[in-house]
């Protein structure tokens, strides 16, 4: 019996898509923070470096090498009562060129119970020309939990002379305390990002930016020392006594990191994940 295989033309083939999920929770063991539950699947992994401190460090890894249209990555974690957790990424994330009408989706949800401390310190996300990134971060805090987060964005590969003349970006950050929103930040853009950022009243040609948020009873005490560390193209403000918001613009990713690191050290007891070292 002769079997005939149907061979589809190359243009009709569906390109492969990357997907992955990581979820974890912590618990206390003596005076240390340790894993309680952990699950990972697909192209999303999590590593746990050995440390000599009571806190738990976790490093997220996208084994697909980046995010493009049709990809989906989800992360969730719960920091239990009294635990301390630092989350970072092994390397910079990359948002690659995406097909029309398709988006790369990244969803992160962090939950902090009473007395927990969580540091969300991912390295830079680099936007490539033609990219389409839909990224969402939600943080839910109990009344006396502390949180430090940073989200750095880099606009193209400066060393290769890349400019972002066509991108799609949806980026949303929500911070909730006891079910009430205390900080909401969102970007919605489609088109010539380079020309948009070149406007003096927007970014004056900056090639990178970062948002830092500290929610802690100590936030007010950090305001003036942090302002002394900031360059001219940056600002810090208290939106409430326990909420410090900082924004920084820089010419490129290297300049941004040099400006970020002293601020993050100041807000995190003079420590940073090893992945952040220049």
From TrEMBL:
Main location: cytoplasm
Keyword Chaperone attached: yes
Localization of this protein: Cytoplasm
Keyword Chaperone appears in the UniProt entry: yes
Keywords, ordered alphabetically: Chaperone, Cytoplasm, Nickel insertion
Signal peptide: none
Top-level taxonomic group: Bacteria
Similarity comment: family membership: Belongs to the UreD family.
Record PANTHER family: UREASE ACCESSORY PROTEIN D
Quaternary state and interactors: UreD, UreF and UreG form a complex that acts as a GTP-hydrolysis-dependent molecular chaperone, activating the urease apoprotein by helping to assemble the nickel containing metallocenter of UreC. The UreE protein probably delivers the nickel.
Primary role: Required for maturation of urease via the functional incorporation of the urease nickel metallocenter.
Protein name per UniProt: Urease accessory protein UreD
């Amino acid at each position: 019996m002769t079997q005939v295989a149907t061979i589809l033309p190359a243009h009709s083939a569906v390109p492969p898509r990357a997907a992955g999920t990581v979820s974890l929770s912590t618990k206390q063991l003596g005076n240390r923070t340790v894993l309680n539950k952990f699950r990972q699947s697909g192209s999303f992994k999590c590593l746990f470096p050995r440390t000599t401190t009571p806190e738990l460090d976790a490093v997220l890894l996208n084994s697909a090498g980046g995010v493009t249209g049709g990809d989906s990555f989800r992360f969730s974690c719960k920091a239990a009562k009294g635990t301390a957790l630092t989350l970072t990424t092994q390397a910079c994330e990359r948002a690659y060129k995406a097909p029309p009408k398709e988006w790369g989706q990244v969803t992160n949800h962090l939950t902090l119970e009473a007395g927990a401390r969580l540091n969300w310190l991912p390295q830079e996300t680099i936007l490539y020309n033609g990219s389409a990134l839909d990224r969402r971060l939600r943080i839910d805090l109990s009344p006396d939990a502390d949180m430090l987060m940073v989200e750095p964005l880099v606009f193209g590969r400066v060393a290769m002379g890349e400019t972002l003349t066509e991108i799609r970006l949806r980026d949303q950050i929500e911070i909730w305390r006891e079910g009430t929103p205390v900080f909401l930040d969102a970007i919605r853009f489609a088109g010539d990002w380079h020309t948009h950022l070149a406007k003096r009243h927007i970014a004056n040609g900056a090639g990178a930016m970062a948002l830092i948020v500290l929610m802690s009873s100590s936030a007010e005490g950090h305001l003036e020392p942090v302002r002394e560390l900031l360059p001219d193209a940056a600002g810090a403000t208290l939106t409430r006594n326990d909420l410090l918001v900082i924004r920084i613009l820089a010419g490129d990713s290297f300049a941004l990191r040099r400006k970020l690191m002293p601020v993050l050290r100041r807000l995190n007891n003079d420590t940073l994940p090893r992945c952040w070292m220049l």
